[in-house]
Design goal:
268 residues; alpha/beta; Major capsid protein gp5 fold; 5-stranded mixed beta sheet; 7 helices; 12 strands; encapsulin nanocompartment; Encapsulin_nc
Length: 268
């Protein structure tokens, strides 16, 4: 049986189609990390670990004069965000309703995106994942509160990468507040701040909920590796007389291959 248990849910094919489409549309916008790092997969629900290509010694062996080493792997983490939909709303989908209330799905998608973005850029110690900002050996660069000075901050980060022999193009991940400030600000003379920062980077500025401060990173490829087992999917948990209780779920790992290929920007 499908582990998502969708066949047990009181949800029609049309409603599942709507839920999948709406979840996808919300997640594509908010999953900022995936726009900047290498993505591999999805490899499926049963894929459990990422091969690190390294080993560690095994102290004891069952036979004398036999040596052993154990392969090192990074286990994938399973992440789930619960939400619910009124059964009445799902029935209305089959009646042709175009304004179905999916507020709970919106919130779950945002939580999932924040969890993924935070993990990639800031790490998740309990899951054994080191984030890009954590791994970087470069000193953090204060972003400051003055948005007008932000191009200078980004230029310093790019210069740091160039001096380390890290080629571009470069991308920038920032949280919602900083992103909005960049979009809305015009420099002296009316030139958009957004265009100036883009010219410095040679790559995109990405809206990434969950990011604190910002991260400038190379997009040359091979430096930051996101591995997907089960990509984001909608599953069924249970239902009652009023609501159907569902969830968004995925499995993934993340690792930094080239720590010097990124510079973290502090919030203040």
């Amino acid at each position: 049986m499908d582990h998502l248990l969708r066949g047990l849910a009181p949800v029609s094919d049309a409603a599942w189609t709507l839920l999948d489409a709406e979840a996808r549309s919300r997640l594509v916008v908010a999953l900022g990390a995936r726009k900047l790092v290498d993505f591999a997969g999805p490899h499926g629900w049963q894929h459990s670990a990422t091969n690190l290509g390294r080993t560690e010694p095994v102290a004891d062996t069952p036979t004398e004069q036999v040596r052993a080493r154990r392969r090192r792997v990074l286990p994938l983490v399973e992440v789930r965000a619960d939400f619910d939909v009124l059964r009445e709303e799902l029935v209305d989908v089959d009646r042709g309703a175009a304004d179905v209330d999916l507020t709970s799905l919106d919130a779950a998608a945002m939580r999932m995106a924040q969890a993924e973005n935070t993990t990639v850029f800031h790490g998740w110690t309990a899951a054994g994942i080191t984030g890009i900002g954590q791994a970087s050996p470069h000193p953090e660069i204060p972003a400051g509160a003055d948005v007008d000075a932000f191009p200078s901050t980004v230029a310093k980060a790019v210069e740091t990468l160039l001096k380390s022999g890290v080629s571009g193009p470069y991308g920038l991940a920032v949280g919602p507040a900083r992103y909005t400030a960049i979009v809305e600000t015009a420099e002296h003379g009316g030139y958009p701040l957004w265009d100036h920062v883009r010219q410095i980077l040679g790559g995109p500025i990405v809206w990434a909920p969950g990011v604190r401060g910002g991260v400038v990173l190379s997009m040359r490829g091979g430096d930051f590796l996101f591995e997907s087992g089960e990509d984001l999917a909608v599953g069924y948990d249970h239902h009652d007389e009023r609501s159907v209780h569902l969830y968004l779920e995925q499995t993934f790992s993340f690792r930094v291959a080239t720590a010097e290929a990124a510079v973290a920007l502090t919030a203040q």
